[in-house]
Specification:
There is one protein chain. The chain has 354 residues and is an alpha+beta fold. It has two domains: 5-220, Nucleotidyltransferase, domain 5; 232-340, Alpha-Beta Plaits. It is built from 14 helices and 13 strands. It has a six-stranded mixed beta sheet with strand order 3-2-1-4-5-6, with helices on both faces. It has a five-stranded antiparallel beta sheet with strand order 12-7-9-8-13. Strands 10-11 form a two-stranded antiparallel sheet. It is globular.
Length: 354
């Protein structure tokens, strides 16, 4: 397939499609025995693929293992990724993997006056895991990684789906996308390189339609941060929240950073019936809001939370879908029971009985 650059990725010469695998653990029976949490997880495979946007052909691909420093490789992780300790025992550090990517980008892209943009499947890789782990290990990221410019494949699907309302996915997983679009997935599941190449296939599929708003406007986290600082904003955005989180739980989470929000807003789904797992925090000062950005990637319950800059303008635009977080779990239980009761009222058999 060959498409012209002015159809998609305008002003971008290369896509750097990136995917990580990380240490992990699971024990639903005895959760307290879990050895690796989402806040302590370490990258163990660092994979990336370079795509020429003028042809959507892969021009380079690379994957390397990374030896974890503080967490074990659990049997659960090996069963999921097929990565064994033999793969990791002689592997380099996370800093080594970052340097390898940086050297390629500097020598083959920047040195040739070319532009690039990252692409990931969701926010976890570049907006949560890498910044948090680099911060914990005191690794200085290249500026383009610390505050990246990127496409999120899940968001691009949502833009594409507006043009194809008949295509509704059960979830946004790579497996689900490939099944819906009749694309092949080859290789080991949960392999960073395989997943990166699978993303390339999905990118080609989306771009083949030539929609004017798909793979056109990347997320620019550096521009967002600069605007946040320029405005001295007091607003931060939260994503990945537990759906049943309460206001006191959020306030306690923030207190760990020594700050307290003056207002917390929950974002509801468009039908206004359920929380979306996202929200906003408003603080008394810009300095407090800046301090909260350091909480990016920290966990609340078992969820790694994305904390990013926002503004009063965004709050105003989202006003119709904002609500207060519940103050206790009983409120959540009441809402759930109310929703169940309303569903029963619509049930014909229930109405016949009562």
């Amino acid at each position: 397939m060959s498409v012209t650059q002015n159809i998609h990725c305008p002003g971008i010469d290369y896509l750097v499609v990136i995917d990580f695998e990380a240490t992990c653990d699971e024990n639903n029976t005895i959760p307290q025995t879990i050895l690796v949490t989402k806040e302590t997880a370490e990258i163990i495979e660092f994979a990336w693929v370079i795509v020429d946007t003028s042809t959507l052909e892969v021009v380079y691909q690379h994957s390397q293992y990374v030896k974890p420093e503080a967490t074990p490789l659990t049997p659960f992780c090996t069963s999921l990724t097929n990565i064994t300790w033999e793969n990791l025992e002689t592997a380099g550090t996370l800093k080594d993997a970052i340097t390898t990517l940086d050297d390629y980008i500097k020598n083959y892209i920047i040195a040739n006056n070319k532009t690039f943009c990252f692409c990931t499947h969701g926010a976890w890789d570049l907006r949560i895991q890498l910044p948090r782990e680099a911060r914990d290990k005191r690794i200085e990221l290249p500026p383009y990684l610390a505050h990246c410019r990127m496409f999120d494949l899940k968001q691009e699907y949502q833009r594409w789906q507006v043009h194809h309302p008949d295509v509704i996915l059960k979830n946004h997983s790579l497996n689900e996308m490939c099944a819906a679009f009749e694309l092949q997935m080859g290789g080991q599941p949960h392999s960073g390189l395989r997943d990166s190449l699978t993303m390339v296939s999905i990118i080609r599929y989306f771009c083949s339609f030539g929609h004017p708003d798909v793979f056109v406007n990347p997320i620019d986290t550096n521009a967002d941060l600069n605007q946040f600082k320029k405005e001295e904003s007091k607003v931060i955005h939260l994503a990945g929240l537990p759906y049943d989180v309460t206001q006191p739980e959020l306030e306690a989470w923030f207190s760990g950073q020594g700050v307290r929000p003056t207002v917390l807003w929950m974002i509801r789904t468009p039908d206004h019936q359920k929380p979306s797992g996202s929200g906003f925090g408003i603080f008394a000062s810009h300095e407090d809001a800046m301090a909260c950005l350091e909480m990016n990637g920290r966990t609340l319950g078992d969820r790694a939370i994305e904390v990013s800059p926002s503004s009063e303008r965004v709050i105003e635009a989202a006003g119709a879908i904002l609500a207060s977080f519940p103050v206790c779990e009983y409120v959540i239980y009441y809402v759930q029971m109310h929703e169940l009761f309303m569903l029963l009222l619509d049930d014909e058999a229930f109405n016949q009985l009562y």
